[in-house]
Design brief:
- The termini are far apart.
- By secondary structure, the chain is mainly β.
- A hairpin with a 2-residue loop joins strand 23 and strand 24.
- The relative contact order is 0.13.
- It contains one helix and 30 strands.
- The strands form eight sheets. It has a six-stranded antiparallel sheet with strand order 7-6-9-4-11-12, with no helix packed on it.
Length: 353
């Protein structure tokens, strides 16, 4: 790849370098890239098309060339002679094949050489690095060429997501005027109290860090009945109702969701089990009739005779005689006391006297 470095001016700012985070930020807001303590009024021009310029080493002690945490890039800042564009912040992930693309911001066009910041929402993993992507040939990015120990790499063409660039070039003692502010994934350290009733309603204090921009708190995936962010390190949440047993407590911010790092849970406790009532006595099934024990039918009506016979496994057979009002059985055959096969018929003769 053809390249030319055009030095427009070279001024080193003789001042202390402070890696400051945005006002009011906690330890979970991390700066990745140059602290921008130099005067980055030098432009570096690249021929051959769009490229990605990445910082692979920094001159300032303690500065993060790679993100030490996973989370979300919420802002990126440029400083120096950025000309042309627009430009995009690029997340770069180190692999055995080289730096591969892992996300891009929306386009921005810096105006002037002062530090300028742009909001974004780019996921980033611990160990990822950052770079700046140009749009076309001869776009200029801000650098400082007197940054001892710093190194930049130019990747051509810009690496696609998950793929490395075809070629790279290295410039030693050169620092890129670029950094990114990372909001780390929240950290849950302690849950107090660690247990409560299944009915819910327990006020649970969640201690940790990175509780900026909390969007939800959940108990085993069920949203808390309510929560209040007391500080960047403390939340009070009300447990919802649930079944007895342990559940994880999750805190979600714009940077992601975390549960207790030591695996501790909130345990729902139910009332002591009550003894089951004794089973109700059961009525044994009636003994099936297997024989016809002929009963006495004398003096019975036809209807009463039929019912009595059916109870003992017999059937009413031929009915003779008068069947008028007041008719009763005067004779039967077989006689009472006979034992016959089930379903045997008993014939009767009726009379009114």
């Amino acid at each position: 790849m053809r390249r030319a470095i055009v030095i427009l001016s070279c001024v080193l700012l003789a001042a202390s370098v402070v890696a400051a985070t945005p006002s009011g930020a906690s330890a979970r807001m991390v700066l990745v890239g140059s602290p921008l303590g130099y005067t980055f009024n030098i432009g570096i021009l690249r021929k051959g098309g769009a490229v990605v310029v990445a910082e692979t080493a920094l001159s300032e002690p303690g500065a993060n060339v790679a993100s030490p945490v996973s989370g979300l890039v919420v802002q990126w800042t440029t400083k120096g002679r950025y000309q042309g564009g627009p430009f995009r912040l690029v997340i770069l992930r180190p692999t055995p094949l080289g730096l591969v693309g892992a996300g891009r911001s929306g386009p921005q066009t810096p105006v002037g050489e002062s530090a300028q910041s742009y909001p974004t929402a780019l996921p980033i993993q611990a160990g990822d690095m950052i770079g700046i992507e140009t749009s076309k040939e001869l776009d200029s990015v801000g650098i400082q060429q007197s940054a001892t120990g710093a190194t930049i790499e130019t990747l051509f063409p810009p690496p696609l997501e998950g793929s490395p660039a075809a070629t790279t070039t290295t410039d030693a003692n050169t620092e890129l005027g670029l950094n990114a502010t990372v909001q780390a994934t929240p950290e849950v350290l302690q849950i107090t109290p660690a247990a409560g009733p299944t009915a819910g309603g327990t006020a649970v204090t969640i201690t940790g860090d990175g509780f900026e921009s909390v969007t939800s708190v959940d108990f085993g995936g069920t949203p808390a009945a309510g929560f209040t962010v007391k500080s960047a390190k403390s939340i009070v949440a009300t447990s919802p109702g649930a079944q007895a047993g342990p559940v994880s407590v999750g805190v979600t911010t714009i940077a992601g969701t975390s549960t207790a790092s030591d695996g501790s849970n909130f345990t729902y406790t139910g009332p002591p089990p009550t003894a089951a009532p004794p089973p109700a006595p059961t009525t044994p099934p009636p003994t099936p009739v297997v024989q016809c024990h002929v009963p006495s039918l004398l003096g019975k009506t036809v209807k009463a005779s039929r019912k009595r016979l059916e109870k003992v496994g017999c059937k009413l057979g031929k009915v003779r005689g008068s069947t008028g009002p007041g008719a009763r059985v005067r004779k039967q055959r077989p006689a009472p006391g006979k034992v016959l096969p089930v379903g045997s018929k008993v014939a009767v003769k009726l009379g009114t006297k």
